[in-house]
Structures are given as structure tokens and as C-alpha cells.
Amino acid sequence: MSEEWDVVIVGAGPAGSSAALAVLQEQPNARVLLLDRATFPRDKSCGDGLAPQVIDVLDSLGVGAIVDGWTPLRELELSRGSRTVRGLMARPVYVIPREVFDTRLVERAVSAGAHLAHHRVRDARVDGASVVIDEQFRTRALISADGAHSVIRASLAPTQGRRAIAARQPVARTPPARCPGTAGTPSNPTATSCMPAMRPGW
Ligand SMILES: Cc1cc2nc3c(=O)[nH]c(=O)nc-3n(C[C@H](O)[C@H](O)[C@H](O)COP(=O)(O)OP(=O)(O)OC[C@H]3O[C@@H](n4cnc5c(N)ncnc54)[C@H](O)[C@@H]3O)c2cc1C
């Protein structure tokens, strides 16, 4: 016997948690189930940058305050080899570790009324007007927010899409005068970062 939910959202990352908030904003009494294979706080490979438009979306969902305590950044610097460009951005951005940001967001979704369950989804099938997930959860509205390797997409809408891999390298903010593993000093004498693990072409 499967549990019946108004909305099931697979994946409680930014997409899933925002979707839960949006549903509950429209229908405060909706029974919304958020499923995630991870327990929060959890990290995610990411540059952790939040564009101003992200803040606009968070504001529209009533959770703009989750960036509180983090410094808004106005200056952007791009470097390649010996070239560096730097300028002020029209609107500030934030850099918040996903371990923090995603946790705050999912907590807001739960506060708004979503039910968060730790569950790794393996399969989904259509059954009449409903979708049944792992023979355990049944809903008429399924939102797939389970990331780049979506199990839901593979189950319900398989494609031969392209695959990619990505990696990240945190950048030290207080480097030595010379960056270990690189040819010389940072290209910009005032720059405060080295990227020893970066390779040409990355
Ligand atoms: C190296 C790198 C740098 C990036 N830098 C930035 C950046 O600076 N700024 C920016 O805006 N974006 C950045 N991105 C993109 C950003 O990470 C993604 O766009 C964002 O994470 C997508 O959010 P999401 O909620 O759709 O998916 P995710 O954040 O991937 O969340 C998916 C969730 O689904 C869960 N899940 C997955 N499979 C299952 C399953 N079978 N059952 C249950 N749960 C499941 C996962 O545990 C996860 O919590 C970067 C990406 C990479 C790879």
C-alpha cells in the first residue's frame, strides 16, 4: 500500500526546496513530500555563487533572509595567464557554501509545511493519473529535482543526452608570495588567490 501525497518532489537541492516553497505558497495545505537520498547538511560540487536573480527568486518565495550573515560581494575579477580584468557588478552576489545554503533552504521548506524524508529513489512508473515511486509513494504531481543524473528522467523520459563531469578547487584567500605548483607569482600583484590545482583548458 503506497502513501498518497498531493505533490512528491524528488531531490531537496535548491530546485526541489524552491519548488516545495512555491507549491506551499500557492496551496498552504498541500501535502508535499520532499525525498532526498542525502541527509542535510550535505555538500555539493559547486562554485557556491548566487547571482542577484537567485536572490530575487528567494525574495519572491519569502526566504530572502537565508543569505543573512554572508557578505554581499560587488567586485568581480577574472584572470587568465597574465591578464586580469576587474570591475564592479551592477548588483551584489553572494558566495555561500552549498552545505549551508541548501540546508537553510530545505529547512525553510520544512518550516513552510513540506515533509522531508531520507529516501533514495530508484524507480517511478505511471499508473493511470498517478505516478508511483518505488511502489511506496503515490502522487498526481511529481516534480523531478534530482539533479544532473536524474533517476526520474531515466525512468519516465529516457534520452541519450550528453554526459559531462565537473570538479571544483577551493581558492586560498591568503596565498604565499609564490603559488606552489605554478610558474611564478600571481599574475596580479594585488591578487589574493592562487589556483594550484587548475590546469590549462579548465
Ligand atoms: C563545478 C560546479 C560549479 C558550479 N558553480 C555554480 C555556481 O557558482 N553558481 C550556481 O548558481 N551554480 C553553479 N553550479 C551549478 C549548480 O550546482 C546546479 O545548477 C544546482 O546544484 C542545481 O540544483 P538542483 O536542485 O537542480 O540539483 P542538485 O543541487 O544537484 O540537487 C539534487 C538533489 O537530488 C538528490 N538526489 C539525487 N538523486 C536522488 C535519488 N535517486 N533519490 C533521492 N534524491 C536524489 C541529491 O541528493 C541532491 O540533494 C555549479 C556546478 C558545478 C558542477
Automatic annotation (TrEMBL):
Domain of life: Bacteria
Signal peptide (from-to): none
Boundaries of every FAD-binding domain copy: 5-157
Keyword list, A-Z: Oxidoreductase
Any Pfam family the entry gives: FAD_binding_3
EC number(s) per entry: 1.-.-.-
Polar residues biased stretches: 184-193
EC category: oxidoreductase
GO terms assigned for molecular function: oxidoreductase activity
Keyword Oxidoreductase part of the UniProt annotation: yes
Region: Disordered, residue numbers: 167-202
PANTHER family in the cross-refs: CONDITIONED MEDIUM FACTOR RECEPTOR 1, GERANYLGERANYL DIPHOSPHATE REDUCTASE
Name of this chain's protein: NAD(P)/FAD-dependent oxidoreductase
Species for this entry: Flexivirga alba
